[in-house]
Design brief:
The protein is an alpha/beta fold and 339 residues long. It has twelve helices and twelve strands. Helix 10 runs antiparallel to helix 11 and helix 11 crosses helix 12.
Length: 339
Amino acid sequence: MTTILALPGDGIGPEIMAAARRLLARVGDFEIDERLVGGASIEAHGTALTGEVLDACRSADAVLLAAVGGPRWDSTDPAAPRPEQGLLGLRKGLGLFANLRPVRPSPALLDSSPLKRERIEGTDLLVVRELTGGIYFGERGRRGASAFDTCVYSEAEIERIARVAFRLARRKVTSVDKANILDTSRLWREVAERIAAEHGELEFEHLLVDNAAMQLVSRPASFDVILTENMFGDILSDEAAMLTGSLGMLPSASLGEDGPGLFEPVHGSAPDIAGSGRANPLAMFGSVALMLRFGLGMEREAAAVEDAMDSALESGLRTQDLGGSASTAEATEAVLAAL
């Protein structure tokens, strides 16, 4: 039987994970192994990710994470455990180097975006972000009154993420860098061009990251796959997320060469509404769809979940973050009814 390792985490995490489990029960027959991560794991074990949980993740067919973090664990002590270390530990321990963030505003929500309907209509893009290299993982530190963070990329790191982007593209790959300034971006551009030459059927372009940020707002429907490094991808994917009107709508997938992928909503743990029943479960449902598609090879079921979400929204479903009043339970019922 297919095993899914479920990590509810913190804040609203347990609430949206419970909703996801109801959805999964309707979609197929899965064995769900639920474990602690993030702040919940710190409370129980003193660390955000135990070796036992990481081993269980490696043995599963897919890993579904809800959310980690909260002010309860904020500290200026660099030695204090932080919930986010659980997420970083999962990415490293599972070898997850490719982060996928699809951005497709639901037709029913085109007027919920801060941008005009005619500007975002037809938007259906995928941000492919390199997840384990760059400035986030380079040497860093302080020397007297100065601080430094080092950005390093190898050809092999760039090539493997570029191959993911070209494999998933339907018509075009837009490689985003800062090659007019950064040597790492110049290497990125060279390798991306080499991989593009193997895919003559696809359109290919380079954009400088500042220009890409502008064009994501001015002509988002022109993008197909955006390929970029870690920090640029972190920023651009959050910008692109707002095209949908709410971070509560965005799922993500993190994949490696082999082994299980990690699937999670983009939003955080929202501790201010935890326990109130107001959390929007749709990004979690979208993450379930990505897990079915990319993690378990269940395309028909993934499409059915996405269609049910669109149908529920067309029928008027709106959670608080979308300007409505539907609770987590009501949103879950609406999607299950449409499914």
